[in-house]
Amino acid sequence: MSVHQSTVRALAVACAALVVAGCTSATEAGSSGDGEPGKDTTTVGFIMVGPKDDFGYNQAVYEGSQAVEAAFPDLEVLTAENVPEDDTAATTMQQMIDEGAELIFATSYGHLDAALSVAEENPDVVVVQQGNTITDDIPENSGTYFGTVYEPMYLAGIAAGTATESDKLGYVYAFPIPQTIANINAFERGAQSVNPDVETITVSTSSWCDPGKQQAAAESLLDEGVDVLTQHQDCTSTVIQAAEKSGAMTVGYHADASEIAPEGWLTGAVWDWGPVYTDIVQTVVDGDFVGSAYNDNFRVGYKTGTNPFVLAPYGPGVSEETITAIETAQEWLGTEEGSPFAGPVLDQDGEVRVEEGGVPTYADNDVMDYFVQGVIGNLAQ
Question: Does residue 337 surpass a pLDDT of 90?
């Protein structure tokens, strides 16, 4: 089965789960006509909010763009680093379009408004945005996509919950948006599955990449007795190196950074965007892009069969027994009853958020707005 075929099948599952009105597969949509998005695509652009070598989010995006370049040698692939989440994003995307780009990947959460604006002004260009959930109408030549990265974070939580000796895990995160909250909750739930006494202490930096704030957050968590650190930050090296220097363990995020933590590295939830990017490009090249009906709130994960993420290699602190437990849990997450948030789920105040036996959908998790029991921190911080 080709990547395109597997993702079209995954889309059918995702559409059913999200109950997107009018959702159709790419193969059902037919080819676009002259002047429609996807016609004669020769150039693809990627904008990144940070540097391509950040051991994190933007590095994963860049590596995905290079996978597209390898898969489509006749296409020109444009990349732009350090594009802020402001009007600069729209300007940069327009410059790419002026250079011939017919497909743009806007890859940061805060690039959404600029992406939709550029799509509206350029109806012959496909603009897709990474990470948001949209409920409003959007231009038909635009859409969003993402992966359920909280699933591998649940698995990484198993490694952390097994390895910790203090029963205190630390989580440095940027902003309390649903995808970040879901990651934190899944990490704690995974840890709880093997260690009921474990807690995850959170610190917000209010920034995707501020090494000074990251260093301060890591130090404050280490001072509280945390012996495993993880994070939801775009650039990850500061927190990982702080953990390694202190003798603590670390769980990576976005990209494999095991080389900078040879002693304390456990594993990490790593984006592997190549297959998803390649499939989206192929859909556009084939003239099968059908706008929001294809990409609006498109999510792939363990249940859909097309995964844009992998677990990073395991470090020396992860036993074979733990690896087996993680592999078993991963298989379970791909089943109908599997979920990091399979009920019962209680929030910090003891309120039941998912009843016993309940399994929330991917769409439910995309709007998560509470911390689960075991997570220490205030969403208003």
Answer: yes
User: Which residue did the predictor score with more confidence, 298 or 245?
Assistant: 245
Architecture of domain 150-270+309-376: 3-Layer(aba) Sandwich (3.40)
List the beta strands (DSSP E) in the chain.
Answer: 43-47, 76-80, 103-106, 126-130, 142-147, 168-173, 199-204, 228-232, 249-254, 265-271, 298-300, 309-311, 345-346, 352-354, 375-376
Q: What global pTM score does this model have?
A: 0.79
What pLDDT does residue 109 have?
83
Q: In b/e form, how buried is each residue of 325-342, taking b as 16+ CB within 10 angstroms?
A: bbeebbeebeeeebbbbb
3-147+272-300: CATH, from 3.40.50.2000, 3.40.309.10, 3.40.50.2300, 3.90.1150.10: 3.40.50.2300
